[in-house]
């Protein structure tokens, strides 16, 4: 079986490092090249046109300042793009949505399959309950409300028409993310599993068509 080849932007970041480690033992995916700001072992953002490795999918977990360059490059080479960079503007997201009509684009506040199951459970819970609230607790440097909490609230609104309140706390010294809705609970630790999950998403995105923005919900339905 031929492996899906990945070009990873933000390769020295937390998720990139874990994905690179996971890809060394993966039967399905391979990170063939990386991009970052200032590591000589990888390309930098002024060298995108110098990349000579063949790749099937681009993953971007970098910085919002490089978002436009990566999007422009993905459109130029016409490869699927998985966008996990945080802090981007509404204008940048609008450009990403336009690009999703030309190339397959994944953009979700959640990249974890275990969390996707939790979201589905929350939607079912919301159907039978009112005045619901998500209480999230994270490591102390996390930006809140988290993108995952926003995704959950939007899914609940879209599926039930109900407002899900978000209550956020920053308490943990370790890399822990924790969400609770009623008697439902989801907790993830570290970035090892996240790296593996993004590799799996890349493997699936290779075979998608440019049909608007993908998230895990849409991607799983298509597969």
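Q: What amino acid sequence fits the structure above?
A:
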């Amino acid at each position: 079986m031929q492996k899906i080849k990945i070009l990873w932007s933000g390769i020295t970041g937390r998720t990139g490092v874990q994905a690179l480690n996971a890809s060394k033992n993966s039967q399905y995916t391979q990170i063939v090249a990386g991009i970052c700001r200032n590591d000589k072992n990888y390309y930098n953002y002024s060298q995108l046109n110098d990349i000579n490795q063949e790749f099937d999918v681009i993953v971007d977990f970098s910085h919002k300042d490089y978002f436009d360059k990566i999007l422009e490059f993905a459109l130029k080479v016409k490869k699927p793009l998985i966008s996990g960079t945080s802090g981007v503007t509404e204008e940048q997201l609008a450009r990403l949505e336009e690009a999703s009509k030309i190339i397959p684009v994944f953009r979700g506040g959640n990249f974890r399959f275990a969390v996707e199951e939790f979201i589905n459970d929350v939607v079912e819970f919301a159907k039978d309950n009112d005045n619901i609230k998500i209480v999230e607790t994270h490591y102390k440097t996390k930006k809140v409300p988290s993108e995952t909490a926003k995704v959950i609230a939007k899914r609940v609104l879209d599926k039930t028409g109900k407002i899900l309140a978000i209550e956020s706390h920053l308490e943990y010294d370790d890399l822990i993310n924790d969400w609770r809705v009623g008697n439902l609970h989801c907790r993830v630790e570290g970035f090892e599993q996240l790296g593996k999950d993004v590799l799996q998403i890349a493997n699936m995105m290779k075979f998608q068509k440019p049909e608007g923005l993908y998230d895990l919900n849409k991607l799983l339905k298509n597969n």
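Q: And what stands out in the fold?
A: Residues 113-127 form the longest helix (15 residues).
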